Amino acid sequence: MIYVVLVAHWVGDFLLQDSRLALNKYRDRWCLLEHCVTYASTMGVASSFILPPERAVVFALVNAAAHLVIDAVTSRWTHKTWGWAEHPRVFWNVIGFDQLLHVTLLALTLKAVTAW
Question: Most exposed among 23, 78, 86, 99, judged by the fewest C-beta atoms under 10 Å?
Answer without folding.
Answer: 86
